[in-house]
Amino acid sequence: MLDLLPDLFDHYLDKLSLLPSTFISYGGESLFYGEVVTVGCFEDNSKVKWVLSQAGKGKVLVVDGRGSSRALLGDMIAKSAVKNEWEGIIIHGNIRDVMCMRALKIGVQALGSNPIKTEKRNRGEINIELEIAGVNIQPKMWVYADAHGVAFSLKALDLSVLNE
Ligand SMILES: O=C([O-])CC(=O)C(=O)O
């Protein structure tokens, strides 16, 4: 299965909030979903690095870069996320090492790329409520992503109905 969002919206239109931003899929997996973990940060990806060094099976990290221009994710941090079994990473901001990302078995979506990394000064917050492009995002919500974009739901949706 490579397309998820069209069927998901056919079944669950009222339960989903689609992010209006245009994300680019950079990871080796274009379709991914899971329970939301959040980070909010500005020009400092210390918390992104720390969170992705923890166990992530069934989870997707959603990062609000709050208008940061420097890269909030690179290949080393993404490799650590793969090792720790994260399903995916969604960055409302930029990433780097974009060609390496394609080889990694993980979903990565971001607004764009920037070759310069941030300064790690341990600033930023983990598991806070985010407001991205008018969509309220809370930890433990569920997120679904594919080439069509990124959509959130309050609870996990039953995907078995999509094959009916
Ligand atoms: O360390 C960083 O900020 C980003 C990076 O280059 C990597 O993850 O490889």
TrEMBL record:
Its cofactor is a divalent metal cation. InterPro entries: RraA, RraA/RraA-like, RraA/RraA-like_sf. Its EC number is 4.1.1.112, 4.1.3.17. It comes from the Bacteria. Keywords: Lyase, Metal-binding. It catalyses: 4-hydroxy-4-methyl-2-oxoglutarate = 2 pyruvate; oxaloacetate + H(+) = pyruvate + CO2. CDD domains: RraA_family. NCBIfam families: NOT-MenG, PRK09372.1, PRK12487.1. Catalyzes the aldol cleavage of 4-hydroxy-4-methyl-2-oxoglutarate (HMG) into 2 molecules of pyruvate. Also contains a secondary oxaloacetate (OAA) decarboxylase activity due to the common pyruvate enolate transition state formed following C-C bond cleavage in the retro-aldol and decarboxylation reactions. Homotrimer. Belongs to the class II aldolase/RraA-like family. This is 4-hydroxy-4-methyl-2-oxoglutarate aldolase. It comes from Shewanella surugensis.
